[in-house]
Design brief:
Strands 1-30-29-28 form a four-stranded antiparallel beta sheet, with no helix packed on it. A hairpin with a 4-residue loop joins β28 and β29. Helices cover 26% and strands 22% of the residues. Pfam families: WD40. One of its GO terms (cellular component) is nucleus. Residues 680-690 have a biased composition (Acidic residues). It comes from Pristionchus fissidentatus.
Length: 702
């Protein structure tokens, strides 16, 4: 059979299917009743649309026509597939004619089967259409086969299929022996990539993520706070803002509230600073009175603030721990606009040691539901209170939890356990139902810094902590342990550097680590993590433009000002007169003069008044100087012999003649002095020179 015969057969089949469809549609149009008004309007040829009615369609005939069209299309598709397969077999050397004949018979049978299936589907649809109109489903095309690749199968069957494709029997499974559903715990740690951020040269003492994952804040022992905004940062990883909010105090703690609008800073001073998203300070807490013994009567802290945490449910409430021996609850609702200060705490919690004296809380934490407050003190105790109106008695107390000050406490995500880290080189896990002994303990974890962190992974299957030491001989480590057995799972080593601060952001799935060399390491995984630092390391560096200084010199020409321009038609007003220029100069002089003039000083009523002292005699120094001057000039003033006073300096003048001797060198080379000094004669008063009012009356009358 040739290609021409195949094409002819295909065209004849298409023509027959088209004629059948037209015949069916013609019958449907004949059976459809024509409205009387529409027929009359068509006969009359009028354009009155008001008498037209909606056209009524016969659904049965339309479905029959659709089924016929589907059958014709199915036959065409079967013939097309038959031709393609026949051509492939002919190319392979098989008998082309036999393959074509066999396929022709098969195609005829497939067309008949497709037609019967379409008719049966139509009949079943027509039978159920009267009962339920909502169960209408489109019919499937003939020869439809579902895609098995998207069908969810049983887990065992999927495992067998994967093993069969890999070519092994599944005995040497890569993840065999790990706990869980065959997935290793190390695969959950986002530590595939590392980014290095340089904060300074001194150790990192605090760091914090905001809850949205848009920025990170670092604070160090160099008194500086750096704000890194991931949306603005490029591959240079430079901070968006650098601040020194607490002057010359070490930054101990940083914390964002629930919505990331406020940043709380605790440092060596007793006041907590609150910054907005831009890094500007908008509030601070009041400083307490350090001379009051009872801490309940002081309005604020009186010593360094060690830790600050925000309530996980209330975005305006935060808790602070201080060296003054108290925990204080603050609320931003108490902020006063006039003083720009939170004038008083809401509640105060006093921490005490075994002897009933003050215990300095070093760290504090909220439970995930916000109903429990936990604190770790310098005596090694862990104390917890229920978040209620009164904080008199503890609800959970472990007096000898550690043998050294506690550096960090964290409540587990389930709210039933507490993880603690201390300077005694141990990490312990406590149950809130038993305070006798720890559930798990891990020792030999060097801890040399006060703020060494610990915590849980976002899903709670691991715990992490860092090792630190004051000397560079001991290498720092970031250690991950199994939360149920405390067995080591993974670690990152820092040679010669201590690991102090650690933060694992659950939303970004990125880990931020603060080291003692002033750097911050951010770890992420390209498959497990998203956003955050990942968008910064690939962002191109911004081109640094040179600072261009433009200097504009203002040339002022008074005659071009508006006040000197001609006005009106009067020729006198159009001229620039001397009076106008002087008026302008007077105006300039008045502008240069200060608006406020200091009033004259009031006279002194006493020797010292109003912060001022008299020029002489007002102080001890001036009085002594005045007396010494008078004592020294007493002999000179008492000496009435002028000649003797002059001859007193004769020897010195003769030895070093400077002024007087050169003047008399020509006229009087040998000085001549009076041989004898006599007392001055008493001068008689000249009556002519006396004033008139002193003259006698008789003399004045004459």
């Amino acid at each position: 059979m040739s290609d021409a015969q195949h094409a002819t057969g295909r065209q004849s089949a298409q023509q027959e299917a088209g004629e059948a469809a037209q015949a069916e549609s013609g019958k449907a149009e004949q059976q459809q009743p024509q409205p009387a008004d529409a027929a009359a309007a068509a006969a009359g040829g009028g354009n009155d649309n008001s008498r037209k009615r909606a056209r009524v369609f016969d659904l049965g005939s339309m479905l029959a026509a659709t089924s016929a069209t589907a059958a014709s299309r199915a036959s065409e598709a079967a013939q097309r597939r038959m031709l393609e397969e026949a051509e492939k077999k002919a190319a392979a050397g098989e008998d082309f004619e036999e393959a074509a004949a066999g396929k022709a018979g098969t195609s005829g049978r497939s067309i008949a089967v497709a037609a019967r299936s379409a008719d049966s589907a139509y009949n079943s649809l027509a039978a159920t259409d009267e009962d339920d109109d909502d169960d209408f489903l489109p019919m499937l095309p003939p020869g439809f086969r579902p895609d098995e690749s998207v069908i969810v199968k049983d887990e065992a069957e999927k495992a067998r299929m994967v093993a069969a494709e890999a070519g092994d029997d599944g005995e040497d499974d890569e993840y065999e022996g790990y706990q869980g559903d065959g997935i290793p715990t190390t695969a959950l740690i986002p530590a595939a990539c590392e980014a290095k951020i340089v904060h300074g040269v001194k150790p990192i003492s605090s760091l914090a993520f905001d809850h949205q994952g848009q920025r990170i804040v670092t604070g160090g022992q160099d008194y500086a706070v750096n704000i890194y905004d991931f949306q603005k940062m490029d591959a240079t990883l430079r901070p968006d803002r650098q601040l020194t909010p607490c002057e010359s105090h070490v930054i101990h703690t940083l914390a964002f509230n629930a919505n990331g609008e406020s940043l709380a800073i605790g440092a060596g001073n007793a006041q907590i600073r609150l910054l907005d998203r831009k890094g500007s300070q908008w509030a601070e807490t009041v400083r307490g009175d350090q001379y009051l013994v009872d801490l309940a009567y002081t309005k604020g802290h009186t010593a360094a603030v060690n830790c600050i945490v925000w309530n996980p449910l209330v975005k305006t409430e935060f808790l602070s721990a201080s060296d003054d021996g108290s925990l204080r609850l603050w609320s931003m609702d108490d902020f006063k606009v006039i003083t720009k200060c939170i004038n008083q705490h809401q509640k105060v919690i006093k921490t005490k040691n075994a002897n009933g004296k003050r215990a300095q809380p070093q760290t504090c934490a909220y439970s995930p539901d916000g109903k429990l407050i936990v604190a770790g003190c310098d005596d090694g105790s862990i104390q917890a209170w229920k978040h209620a109106k009164m904080f008199v008695n503890t609800s959970y107390l472990v007096r000898k939890a550690h043998s050294a000050p506690v550096t960090c406490v964290v409540v587990a995500p389930d709210g039933k356990k507490i993880l603690s880290r201390a300077l005694d080189d141990t990490l312990k896990l406590w149950s809130l139902t038993d305070n006798k002994a720890p559930v798990l303990m891990k020792g030999d974890l060097e801890c040399g810094f006060k703020g060494t962190d610990c915590g849980f992974s976002p899903r709670g299957e691991m715990v992490y902590t860092g090792t630190s030491a004051p000397s560079s001989d001991v290498e720092g480590k970031l250690i991950f342990l199994n939360a149920e057995t405390f067995e080591p799972v993974y670690q990152i080593v820092y040679p010669g550097v201590s690991c102090i601060r650690i933060a694992w952001h659950a939303r970004l799935n990125q880990i931020c680590v603060g080291l003692s060399d002033g750097t911050v390491r951010v770890y992420y995984d390209q498959t497990l993590s998203h956003a955050g630092i990942m968008g910064c390391v690939t962002k191109p560096k911004k081109r640094q433009r040179q600072n261009e200084v433009l200097r504009e010199e203002l040339i002022l020409s008074p005659l071009t000002l508006h006040m000197f321009q001609p006005r009106g038609d009067n020729p006198d007003e159009q001229e620039v007169t001397e009076w106008r220029i002087r008026k302008y100069l007077r105006m300039r002089d008045n502008q240069k003069r200060p608006n406020f003039r200091k009033p004259a000083d009031m006279p002194l009523d006493d020797k010292s008044c109003g912060g001022r002292v008299k020029s002489s005699g007002g102080t001890l120094h001036s009085f002594v100087a005045q007396q010494l001057g008078k004592e020294r000039n007493k002999d000179f003033l008492a000496d009435t012999d002028v000649r003797a006073s002059i001859l007193r300096h004769a020897e010195a003048a003769e030895a070093d003649p400077q002024f007087i001797a050169p003047a008399y060198k020509k006229n009087q080379p040998v000085p001549i002095f009076q041989e004898k000094s006599t007392a001055p004669e008493e001068e008689e008063d000249d009556e002519e020179l006396e004033p008139v009012y002193k003259m006698p009356r008789g003399q004045f009358s004459s």
